[in-house]
Amino acid sequence: MKKEITREDLVKINEFCYEISQSFRPDMRVPAQVYMNELMMKSILGDRSLEQLVNVATLPGIQKYSLAMPDIHQGYGFPIGGVAATAIDEGGVISPGGIGYDINCGVRLLSTNMDETELRPHMQKLATAVFHNVPSGVGKGGKFKLSFEEIDKVLCDGAAYMVKQGIGTENDLEHCEEGGCMKNADPGMISDRAKKRGLDQLGTLGSGNHFLEIQKVEKIYDEKVAKAFGIRQNLVVVMIHCGSRGLGHQTCTDYVRRFMSKIPDFGIELADRELVYAPFKSPDGSDYYNGMAAAANFGWANRHVITHLTREAFKSVLGKNAWLTTIYDISHNMGKVEKHYVDGIEKKLLVHRKGATRAFGPGRPEITSVYRKVGQPVLIPGTMGTASYILVGLNENMERTFGTVCHGAGRRMSRTQAKKSVQGSELRERLEKQGIIIRCESDSGLAEEAPMAYKDVDNVINVVDGAGLARKVARVVPLAVIKGG
Amino acid sequence: MNKDFELIPHTADIKIRVYGKNLSDLFKNALMGMFQAIGPQAIGCKRVEDRLACNDLPEKRDIDVSSFDIESLLVDFLSEALYLSDIHNEAYLDAKIHEIDDKHINATLLGLKITGFDVVEVKAVTYHDLEVKKEGGFLMTDIVFDI
User: Fold this and answer.
1) How do residues A80-118 score in pLDDT, each as one tens digit?
2) Is B17 a domain residue?
């Protein structure tokens, strides 16, 4: 049944959007749409991401389109950069693989309230202090060891529980998607094995593409919104990119296993087993949704504790009055129940965002009151040697992509290819020549995340902005990169 | 055929192709391949041709996993090894398989304490592209790991 997707199968809707017709494969329930431009097409057609996107179009209850953001690349089950909204009252399903193993992988942005000129003389010391205070890499346990009783509280209340413990502030929570806590979380839906993995992982970055960067705001595109977000040119900010660690990975693994064993009960045929799902309105579906929310809360608590550890590091270098203010915190691996208009009718949808970021326009009640008038801040981490972006959500995009944009630059090169293209030590030297300080123990880990392994983030963001998925507010560039292996 | 596993290019994740002369061999090579692909670091071991070579694998973990077909069993077996690796900071490079059929495995994982992985940690074993096939008298499958 599976056939290769070629250039001819992509119908141009406009400069930034292409469609694969529902007639491409008989099992598709909706067409597939990809936000990209000509420049990206070759690399997107070069892997199997579009085949995966077509597979997503087969999910029961899927609405409008199986969607791909411009950072789309091959994943497992869903492509990375994939979005699917299923109608809860029309037999819509929830797919753990459509949310990802790293539940609530996301980004938090902090402001130092200081400009580059003030902080530049301290940058080496700051990078070292943060590197030593925030555990990163494989098998590095955190400083906060939790008991089983405590972890249940973290799973229930997320970052809010940490504030009750005197870590971070209410102000942090007000500047966080969901206030740092999904209310439907049920710790009873998380296995003891997942909890056990989480006991010593709070406040740890992990490895892979996760990082902490000290960055400066290089360019402002929208002064008014930038002001509302508390950012200005040359401001030094800190970007934290990580997720729910082993606890989240185990939770997704547990539910994929459980759903897989129910395939005969559900009577389903899968285009890819990794897409395994349960009806949202079923005990299996709701158990996963409530368990996923608990794991998401662990993710928010994790970024919250890393914020605290980063503040400690900054204080150790700059003195006790140094402070970092949370600008915003977003998730880019998540499933959420949201109301959206589908062809003029308001429906309750479960929106899967797998390597995709919610980007709601002004006025939506889900946005923190602090930013509700201007729209939701959208944080797009780039690659080590290039740039990251701050954008703002737009109302005109709510119907097209269910208020969603990309989550990063998107890989274009395998890790093996990346390592063949550049030696870690050479890359370290090259980045340091550009004035970027690197704190990473593993040269190999560094090479795998080399900038050339990714698509051009500026081009990805130009598609996002050009297509009206979100609007550019600021471009930020790295001053120091802290990462695990 | 002497091949045990090889790395297959994948844009974002790690993909390996695993070979085995029988089910037991396939599972052992998948276990070894999963850990060797992410470069375990251990004191007292050498790295030979991108693989960790150790004289001794002193850590032993008994496991018993049941599932409903070969592919599920392989995912569940490797997921169990990942869980144990994360809890104990160990990597498993071999196994003694006591019993195995399409739906059940009883084995002792053999490994060692590690200080980290040179490449990356595996978040999960996925079903994507996983299909145990018989070719030329050998069993083989691809496995994609989310990293």
Assistant:
1) 999 999 999 999 999 999 999 999 999 999 999 999 999
2) no
Half-sphere exposure of A455 (CA within 13 A, CB side): 32
Contact criterion met (CB < 8 Å) for A138 and B117: yes
pLDDT of residue A321: 92
Nearest to B119 among A97, A101, A444 (CB): A444
Q: Which residue of B has its CA nearest to A244?
A: B123
Distance, in Å, from the CA atom of A299 to the CA atom of A296, rounded to the nearest integer, reads 5
Q: Which residues of A are catalytic?
A: 407
* Residue B47, in any domain of the structure: yes
Neighbours of B138 (CB within 10 A): 15
- CA distances B127 to A240, A256, A330, Å, are 30, 9, 28
Instruction: Tell whether B145 is covered by a domain.
Output: no
Residue in B39, B68, B128 closest to A444 by CB: B39
* Least confidently predicted of A71-80, A85-94, A439-448: A439-448
Residue B112 lies in a domain: yes
Say yes or no: A376 contacts chain B, CB-CB below 8 A: no
Confidence band for A409, pLDDT divided at 50, 70 and 90:
confident
Domain count, chain B: 1
Which residues of A fall within a CB distance of 8 Å from B42?
Answer: none
Q: Please say whether the beta carbons of A332 and A357 come within 8 A.
A: yes
Q: State whether residue A421 sits within 8 Å of chain B by CB.
A: no
Query: What share of chain A in percent tops pLDDT 90?
Result: 80
Regarding an ipTM greater than 0.90, the answer is yes
For A280-295, what is the mean pLDDT?
98
pTM of the entire predicted model: 0.95
Summarize pLDDT for B86-112 with one digit per residue, the tens. 999 999 999 999 999 999 999 999 999
- CATH number for the domain harbouring residue B67: 3.55.10.10
**Nearest-angstrom CA–CA distance, B120 and B117:** 6
User: Considering Cα of A91, then A97, then A98, then A102, what sign does the dihedral take?
Assistant: positive
pLDDT of residue A140: 62
Cα separation, A60 vs A90, whole angstroms: 9
pLDDT of residue A137: 67
Judged by a CB distance cut-off of 8 A, whether residue A246 touches chain B is yes
B125 lies within 8 A of chain A by CB: yes
Q: Kindly provide the b/e burial profile for residues A377-393, where b requires at least 16 CB atoms within 10 angstroms of the residue's own CB.
A: bbbbbbbbbbbbbbbbb
Domains of chain A listed by start with CATH number: 7-412+454-483 (3.90.1860.10)
